[in-house]
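Bumping my old thread because nobody answered last time. Still need a sequence for this structure:
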C-alpha cells in the first residue's frame, strides 16, 4: 500500500482529502526541483495578487493625500479667519494715542 497522502484521493482513516502541509525549506531537505516548484508557485501567487495590492495602494495613497490636503486647506482657512492680532494692534494704537494725549496734556 502507498504512503498516506501519496496519491490517495482520500485518507482511509478519516475519510477526508489530504491537506497541504507547510514546509520549512531550511529544515527539510528538498530537491532542487521541489525548490523550483515552490518558487514558481510563490511567483504565481504574487502575480495573482499584484493588481489587487496595487489598487489598494493607490486608494490608500489617494486617501492619505486627501487628508493631508484637507488639513493644509483647513490650516490656511483658519489662519485667514484669525483677527485677534488685528484687534491687539488696534488696542495698542488706541493705548498709544491715549498715552500721547495724556503726555501732551491738559
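Sorry it took so long. Here it is:
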Amino acid at each position: 500500500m502507498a504512503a498516506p497522502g501519496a496519491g490517495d484521493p482520500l485518507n482511509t482513516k478519516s475519510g477526508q482529502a489530504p491537506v497541504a502541509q507547510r514546509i520549512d525549506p531550511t529544515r527539510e531537505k528538498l530537491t532542487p526541483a521541489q525548490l523550483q516548484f515552490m518558487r514558481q508557485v510563490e511567483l504565481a501567487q504574487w502575480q495573482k495578487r499584484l493588481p489587487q495590492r496595487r489598487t489598494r495602494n493607490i486608494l490608500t495613497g489617494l486617501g492619505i493625500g486627501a487628508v493631508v490636503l484637507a488639513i493644509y486647506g483647513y490650516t490656511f482657512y483658519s489662519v485667514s479667519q484669525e483677527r485677534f492680532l488685528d484687534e491687539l494692534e488696534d488696542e495698542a494704537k488706541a493705548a498709544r494715542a491715549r498715552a500721547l494725549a495724556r503726555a501732551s496734556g491738559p
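Helices lie at 32-81, 84-104. Let me know if any region looks off to you.
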